[in-house]
Specification:
single chain; 2 domains
Length: about 240
């Protein structure tokens, strides 16, 4: 069925409903004993045995329920950029690991990031693993796909958004030294694990920023870096 995604577990399903996604149907374990959430009342609920569930889910751990949701219509990134109530963005380039994107989305939801913009080669934020890792926290964050990173970053700057490229380079600005007013609009760009951001993308950013490292480590996992950077941006507004 086109235009749908799968959410695993009661909590993630409930958060998807709360974020405005329409629930199509639910599949549960036939041996389930706990009461069904009220969100299941208006849709078809199917039950199956353990072996059938494993074949459908693809692995043994499926958190007791699988919810099939309709996707929302996505708006172009220019609409998010034009919305002046959106103050903080995260832009991801080439982040195609669902675990990493799920962590980024959960951190974004908890650390005052208002919107997510994705490069064409990043993974779907509604993929099962992303939803699972983020525990559905990212459902409330609006997102849009960029058709080209350089053009997207340039458009963000033209909309009055300062774009910060995250890099481990020692020549970059310490992110902890940034200062912004509550009304200033800022976007943080994060790259994929390993290659990081392309030089083309960094060249059109407003500034390059880094998380100072100690010891022999030159960088953090992109999910961990996101948490540190989002917190630093929130502190920069205080």
């Amino acid at each position: 069925m086109a235009g749908v995604f799968i959410a695993e577990g009661d909590v993630v399903i409930e958060r998807a409903v709360a974020a405005g996604y329409a629930l199509h149907s639910v599949l549960i374990d036939a041996k389930r004993s706990q009461p069904l959430p009220k969100e299941f009342d208006a849709v078809d609920v199917f039950a199956a045995g353990e072996q059938v569930l494993e074949q459908i889910a693809g692995y043994r751990s499926y958190r007791g329920a699988l919810g099939c949701f309709y996707r929302k219509e996505l708006h172009p990134p220019q609409e998010l950029m034009a919305d002046t109530s959106v103050k903080s963005f995260v832009i991801v380039e080439g982040v195609n690991n669902p675990t990493n994107l799920g962590i980024i989305m959960r951190c974004a939801a908890g650390l005052d990031i208002d919107a997510l913009l994705l490069s064409p080669d990043s993974i779907d934020p509604l993929s099962r693993r992303c939803c699972r890792v983020s525990m559905g926290e990212g459902f409330a964050i609006p997102y849009a796909w960029l058709t080209d990173m350089v053009e997207g970053v340039t458009a963000a700057k033209q909309a009055g958004i300062e774009v910060l490229a995250m890099t481990p380079s020692p020549n970059a600005i310490d992110i902890a030294t940034l200062e912004y007013s509550p009304d200033e609009r800022v976007a943080l760009i994060l790259g994929a694990e390993g290659p990081g951001l392309t030089e083309e993308t960094m060249s059109v950013a407003t500034r390059r920023v880094r998380i100072p490292m100690s010891g022999n480590a030159d960088s953090l996992n992109v999910g961990n870096a996101a948490a540190v950077a989002f917190y630093a941006l929130r502190q920069a507004r205080n």
